[in-house]
TrEMBL record:
GO BP terms in the entry: phosphatidylinositol biosynthetic process
Gene Ontology cellular-component terms listed: endosome membrane; PAS complex
Region (Disordered): 332-361
The Vacuolar protein 14 C-terminal Fig4-binding domain, residue ranges: 506-682
Pfam family, one: Vac14_Fig4_bd
Compartments, as annotated in UniProt: Endosome membrane; Microsome membrane
This protein's name: Protein VAC14 homolog
Family annotation (Gene3D superfamilies): Leucine-rich Repeat Variant
Amino acid sequence: MNTEKDFSPLTPNIVRALNDKLYEKRKVAALEIEKLVREFVAQNNSAQIRHVIQILATEFALSQHPHSRKGGLIGLAACSIALGKDSGLYLKELIDPVLTCFNDSDSRLRYYACEALYNIVKVARGAVLPHFNVLFDGLSKLAADPDPNVKSGSELLDRLLKDIVTESNKFDLVAFVPLLRERIYSNNQYARQFIISWIHVLESVPDINLLDYLPEFLDGLFQILGDSSKEIRRICEVVLGEFLKEIKKNPSSVKFAEMANILVIHSYDLIQLTSMTWMREFIQLAGRVVLPYSSGILTAVLPCLSYDDRKKSTKEAASACNHSLMKLVTPEDDVDDEESQTKSSPQSDGSPSKKESDLNGPGSIPVVVSFVHQDPSQGFYRCHFKNAVSILKSPMLKEISSTVSPCQMFKHTDSLFPMLLKTLSDESDEVILKDLEVLAEIASSPAGQTDASGSCDNSDSKTELHIPGGVRDGQPVTDLSPSTPSMNSYFYKFMINLLKRFSLERKLLEMRGAFIIRQLCLLLHAENIFHSMADILLKEEDLKFASTMVQTLNTILLTSAELFQLRNQLKDLRTQESCALFCCLYRSWCHNPVATVSLCFLTQNYRHAYDLIQKFGDLEVTVDFLMEVDKLVQLIESPIFTYLRLQLLDVEHNPYLIKALYGLLMLLPQSQAFQLLSHRLSFLMLSKQEDPKAPVKDKRLAQPHIDYSELLQHFDRVQSKHLEVRHQRAGRSEHPDRKL
């Protein structure tokens, strides 16, 4: 520095001492400056005061020489002390050069800058608040300083500034929030700790309503919550907990809509529990305000529902979110687009409304997806399920419901169907049960009712079985869908696609087929399930699959407790409807001869069963065929056929039952099943010697509504087709089916 330069009113001795490398000499110079400034204050000579500050700032604090910069810093602090309460008039000139020294490469100089600013702030107190942002910005940098002395000095200054803010009612929160929003994204742990501490202080000041600005920095808070430092996470959890308490106390003033999407974004592992907890409270407190973010919330919630006990709290919070969200959707939301358009007036150019554009405005976090649109002018909500459905179609499918807004759901049923059917292959029984409930809701909902023919115009040919046209009883087949009023067009489509699934995935049929069908019988009525599947299988072109499927359905019919009512309906065939059901099942059951006989046993059509067994001699008797006969004998010994065994006591009036059983006996080789049935028949005692020429007295009369001769002819036709297919297959194969 040029010591010959005129620095008046500073004397040459003061200038020389300020440039000295010894701290003690610089301190003496500072005392002289303090004395000089006091004189100017007494004279009210502000021009000279500003001149002294300018010299200390430009010629010393901003000098290229390190000792001069140190002298300038202590000189500026001395000026502030001399000014006292008047220092507020010169704060900008005092603070700016000191803050510049915060960036100095010399750690000792950065420490002296902290010390100087501490003295300036301590004297000015509340007068520094208009300059709070620049002070905060400087301190946020020093909080991450590698030098421990500098960091210690910045902490002292930080505490002083916090005391000033808490005791003042003139803090400019509006001006500070943009800086906070910027600084909160720092990745430095010390800077994060500094910012969190300030948020905690500001939140505790009664006169500062930081909750109004929470959407501005909530995203940053959740990022800090994922910090690797346990201490930082702890402080952040405390701060978030305090905010959540405030939200619960004053929900009417909370901007839920602006924060809902932030919670969706931050639903990953480390902060998932906190995010779910906040989300749960938001849904309960804000109600339908969060509906525009429902599909995004589902994205975050659904994976958590599969957690085990290690994340029990997160799972419970997610489950509460899910149930609360479903409660928000009401039947009033289920309106047609035409009706919706009469209640709301969207912009004709198709551009988003102001409310929607605000949510995606500059600097905001984009909304993930939109579930419900609210028209503020009408207070009217309309459910837009398209995006929500896209979420539910994902592999996260665990819990969905279409009971509240079926009309809107039905617009997207075609897109849901493939994933719902695919989910039937899930390993979890709970998932399959929930999936079947959804499919049952779709199939039985009034929203899916169409014309009487049950046609479905928007079906996907790629996922359906091919059902060629045909005739039944001389009439075109047009009433394939069950006539039950509770079913809709999608019910029959569901049955077609389910059988297609079983056809393509034989393991699914083998492992889960019976379970799926039994559950559907509970959800959609057994008669509907069996009637529709029988209709579809009647025209199934893959005869081997048709036989396997009939065998599966027959086993379910004869053994499952869920089918008790249907078995009773078929047992006596007292009504025209039950006779029609029998004929419908019979025609498809003909794909499997043994299943057809068991159906006749169930319906007590013993004469027809005997007639069928007589035809077995013309069939190709394979090992698989005999195994099915073996299983039928085992079933006859089960509780399901108790009534049949008791009828054996009345030999005179049940001759065809006995003949049918003897027919089965003659089909069987010498096996355990043969011994079992033979032993059963050996106990039959004739009350009297029958006259061979006497007419047979069958207690059960033929049903007038059933054409048994036509049924036998149908059986012959179906078996002829099976025989033809087997012969074709044997001709192409090197290993034809084994014959007995």
